[in-house]
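Box 3.1. Reading complex inputs
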Amino acid sequence: MSAPLDGIRVVEVANWLAAPAATRLMADLGAEVIKIEPPGGDMFRGFQLRSLGYDYEFPGNAAFELDNFGKRSVTVDLDKPGGADVVKKLAADCDVFVTNLIPRRRERFGLGWEAVSAANPRVVYCSFSGYGTRGPDENRAGYDYAAYWARSGIMSLLAEPDAPPPLCRGGQGDHATALNILSAVLAGLRVRDRDGVPQHVEVTLQGTGMWTIAGDYSAALLSRQHPPRISRQAPTHPVWNSYECADGKWILLVNPVPFPNAWPRFCEILGHPEWAQEGQYDDMAKLLAGSAELTAQIDPVIKTQNLSHWAAELDRQEIIWAPVATTTDVIDDPQVREMGWITETDMSFGRGETLDTPFKVYGSDTGVRGPAPTPGQDTFDVLAELGIEGDELNRLATDGVLG
Amino acid sequence: MSAPLNGIRVIEVANWLAAPAATRLMADLGADVIKVEPPAGDMLRHFALRSLGYDYQFTDSPAFEVDNFGKRSITIDLEKPGGPELVKQLAADCDIFVLNLTRARRDHFGLGFNELAAINPRVVYASLTAYGSEGPDQDRGGFDYAAFWARSGIMSLLGEPSEPPPSCRAGQGDHSTALNLLAAVLIGLRQRDATGEAQHVELSLQGTGLWSIAGDASTALVAGQNPPRVSRDAPTHPLRNVYRCGDDRWVLLVNPSPFPDRWPAFCSVLGHPEWAGPGYWDSMDRFIADSASAVAAIDPVMATRSLADWGADFDRNGIIWAPVATLLEALNDPQVREMGWVTKTEGSFGPIETLNAPFKVYGADVGIRGPAPRPGQHTFDVLADLGIDDDTLDRLASDGVLG
């Protein structure tokens, strides 16, 4: 079996999550990925997972590992004389160049689109940043929290109407954005292969965040209104809400079309078929208007039975629902196992389980390619391949350019 | 300028958001996208946006529009004799076939990968479902709320520790998944072009949700524990939190490395440089042990000045922040406008503003290709192109196969 990105060389000058996650997927697809790190390594290596509140001593950084499987690592100090030249040589000899340096730093090091495409007329150059390569915030740092969640408008729409904006999961925006970067690079690669000209593609965290709430944007752009937050005490309608069961577990119902079936069947299960009958909540307008009073009546009924009871009933009535699963529930979910979203692999701190590529390309060789590298693990090999050796290599090493 | 998917024909047998959003992006990239709809049209056409709480009379659905720009529409009743055969005829003549039918319905209509690869040995067959085409939940309906948010573990991690799981934004999971689908299809296409063989790619809402919290999932897989929810009253550390300013605006701070510089700089901005010194909060361990006391001290200080005033000081001191923007602020954001994430186009109900593709491929012809189609607007054109003669067309029409 061949891999989709066989023979493609990727150079990554990036750190933290989004861009490395995208190039990790390129490695899964068969590309050779060279990660350029500062001498101390990607900042993400030093992130303390324990600060997230786990009561556990981690043998290594599993989150860094996940975003860097199967890469080679070269450490170069861009701020030292000669450092940028090494990276430029690598950029001249690759198919895909991914950077998340802010534009000011990119230009200072001679690693902007113009310079790299002049040196490499077959490059697909991917600009990735919080806000983009032009505009008032082109040099502003972001992270997904700021650029993807807060500046896109998403965060203002989450949580109960009177509550503070909620804390989102660190990295969720980054991993969605990684899929956007991967798509953009593949589109660029297609044009490059066909037309033989270098391509400049660009993705931002802010723009990706906006895309994910495209439905809200399309409505806001027309109505010029900020949509209200939705409260679980007064949801859109009662078959699109979460409820707490007797065992403290939560179920989520999501039936965007309550009529003719979902709502009457749900009332049947609750033992209140009359709620869906004439004179009560028998059409969409009444259901929307009555969502708060209905929720107040439904809550105590759901509280009388465990989740397993409601699960069987909802399935029997073909109402769309899910348990609000915890992470460990998901790890044990037979559906997740059957689909193979979790895989076992060697990591730099030992063998263990991690997430596989988030899509399947059946019949081709895709998948995790082994541990994340240690910082600078491949520096001398990669430089030798570039023809940097002897005195030149010694000088770079003694000047501390290679860390 | 050429378009990345020039000459590529896509058949979409899908509805609601995730798969149509992905094929809309394929249309933006230059593909000819034919949307196969049931006679009444995609269910999303009929979704009442007003039910989301807008005080605005939508005459048409901009949310449907945003996911269906530039497509052609053909209406076919799959339940009528001859309906599935017509879809197979379309599939025989395409490059990409995108499907979100559950496994049972796909098998019932003879639209599985093996059937289609037999009649189209160059097809890239993309399967998107809530949970996957294997496993115990292969025929379960989901929507992004259930499969992406609840069954992936994300929802259980959001909100304050003691609160119910929060309402997420409908469609946010779908639009993230659309990027996964686009990437998978582009990979399949590359592999098809390289090998000349039909390709089967697959993804699910659940698997994509899990990928989006890859950091949490990879960590939980090692620790065997659920990460705790994070409270704004006791966050990971005070530089990764939201604060209410004097003008009631919320500001988000996201500085994953508070030491050595950012926490002391922040304390100086607040007028309390001593808070970063001995006896106060002078190390990451102090924050892990007790971030709540720091937040309690910071909250009243943040309430003394406006968001704009704090923002200016944060910028001067290199502290990473963002306003928690509303949608209206985000869509008027000069940064958003400069990057071109919002664009004007001709919608099916007049000129509108909407969202552009969430990535740029500079130097290629990428962009919205015109309005969303009316249901069945292109039925006869498309079938005539397939070489179906007038008598057969008349018969299909009178049998109700075409709606």
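In summary: The radius of gyration of chain A is 26 Å.
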